[in-house]
Amino acid sequence: MNALTVDGGTFGCRFFARPGCGACPTMQGMIKTFTDAAPPPPEFEEEFITGLKAIFEEKIVFNQLLGLKITSLKADRVTARIDMRHELIGHPAYNRIHGGVISAGLDAMGGLAVMAAIGARHMDETPAQRLQRFHKLGTIDLRVDYLRPGISEHFELRAEVLRLGSRVASTRMEFLGADGKLFSTAAAAYIVS
Fold first, then answer.
1. Beta bridge partners of 191
2. Are 184 and 146 spatial neighbours (Cβ–Cβ below 8 Å)?
3. Model confidence over 88-106: pLDDT tens digits?
């Protein structure tokens, strides 16, 4: 069996028994797949980052109510923070954050990840043009799994786009405590056009 070793894994071709061949289409495809690195995601301009933060943190007033603040805005992943405060308590005996805050925060983060992905897809446009592309964005479906009670001084929210289609985007989100402990996960679909 002809074998190929890439990154510690051995892959074989059952069609050609010549050692070291690597000439068949199957082996060539494996070589290309395992040796070509994906291109790095594009870096956003300061104008785009500032504009998207203004939309997310100021113009979407509900995000202000939640206290959502963007901490990182990349094409392939976004993160934000919510500081715990009295208005967000869902269980007074334990000072636990309300589940509605968790689900709303995760939904908002999924939307932000889609905005970033749309912005990255259209890097040929000016930042101002890209910031106009979000007016049709809306949640189609949201599923939240609450894994443990949300008790922390502050929370980190993360989101990434799994697939950005021409009409629908799929996302995955996480809600973590200050110590990095995972409290909730979510998956969502968003209409983009």
1. 138, 168
2. yes
3. 999 888 889 999 999 999 9
